[in-house]
Amino acid sequence: MPKILVTGGTGYIGSHTTVLLLQQGFDVVIADNLSNSSIKIVDLIEQVAGKRPQFFKTELCKATDVDFLFKNNDFDAIIHFAALKSTPESVKKPFLYHYNNITSLLNLIEAAQKYNVKNFIFSSSCAVYGTPNYLPVDEKHPFNEALSPYARSKQIGEFILKDTSNKNFRTISLRYFNPIGAHPSGLLGDLPQKDANLMHYVLEVALGKRPYLEIYGNDYDTPDGTGVRDYIHILDVAQAHIVALKRLLNNKMLTNYEYYNIGIGQGISVLQIVKAFEKYVGIKIPYKFAPRRPGDVCCIYASTELANKVLKWKAKYSLKDMIITSWNWAKNINKVFYEFTTN
Which residue(s) pair with 335 in the sheet? Predict the structure, then answer.
């Protein structure tokens, strides 16, 4: 079976995608520096998938590390998740975000060309659109001014890949909206050591790890004043990578560079997430409003027609699924693994 390099494979999206790859028979090599994850995730991937991926602790910003990885493996494709991803942190540390996210990408492209790896999937973001001109956002929407250095690094990454893609290096960029949820096994979920997302904080409140949820902004131009996003189950996001990978490997590309929105096509506010959690889990989530954060957009959700039509991919999990799987995982992780998020 094809050998796939998954960078950032111990992260949230990377670990779930690795499970699906292994379950479908692919040979997987994870490269990760563990800056926002744990080596224990490799054990959990093996437990869920029934097969263990190879793991290399790799600094992708070091060209020598990347070259070593490619020299010792014959990859058929690369799925590039590894990146710094916190919008607030990127506003505080713009150089770090550009250096890390762009240098790692350039090193991978250079190694792919040197070692003749023709297939590349890039982990992009709806942040590339900036403040949207219209909703739902489709792939024809221009890249507006980036609202954060993180968002700009994703824009630059897509420009680099568009410029470097050719018949010998074909790329698909997947523009995720807001992944939440967890694997139904209860063993894999969103377990960052820093830079957590909304659902992680909701779960910590429900587990008694924090007294209340901070909601950043209640004066947006939305029905309840809180920000609106397109939340999608993590397994739907992971499945999009499987579909995109097979498109590349089976030479189904119409152009050398393609890009797709990955969302459910529905806007859900922060308060709606809180109320849905209370409804489906039965635990009250206290919250307090805080000022808006720099870099946050008011409202964005996807048009997924292109991915539905061309990739034959469509999100199948509901908001209830996202919340219930998150909660089941959180209860399990709280009992067994929570210590490595706090130690």
Answer: none
Residue 197: per-residue pLDDT: 87
Rounded to 10 degrees, the C-alpha dihedral 315/319/321/325 comes to 110
The amino acid occupying position 28 is V
DSSP, collapsed to helix, strand or coil, labels residue 206 as helix
Predicted local distance difference test score (pLDDT) of residue 342: 43
Q: What is the pLDDT of residue 340?
A: 43
What 3-state class would DSSP assign to 143? coil
Question: How are the residues of the chain apportioned to helix, strand and coil, as percentages rounded to the nearest 5?
Answer: 40, 20, 40
Separation of CA 106 from chain center: 19
Catalytic (active site) residue 220: no
Closest CA to 36 of 73, 89, 99, 72: 89
Tell me what pLDDT residue 195 has. 67
Burial of 71 (0-12, 13-18, 19+ CB in 10 A): exposed
Find, among 289, 292, 227, 294, the residue nearest to 92 by Cα: 294
pLDDT given for residue 322 in this prediction: 98
- Expressed in angstroms, the distance from the first to the final Cα of the chain is 39
Tokens of 272: 């709606």
Which regions of the chain are under pLDDT 70? 193-195, 334-343
Contacts (Cβ under 8 Å, ≥6 apart) of 339: none
């539905």: which residue's tokens? 308
| Burial of 309 from C-beta contacts in 10 A (0-12 / 13-18 / 19+) | exposed
Q: Which of 12, 97, 150, 260 is catalytic?
A: 150
Identity of the amino acid at 234: I
* C-alpha dist (Å) from residue 250 to 32, 45, 126, 243: 27, 26, 27, 11
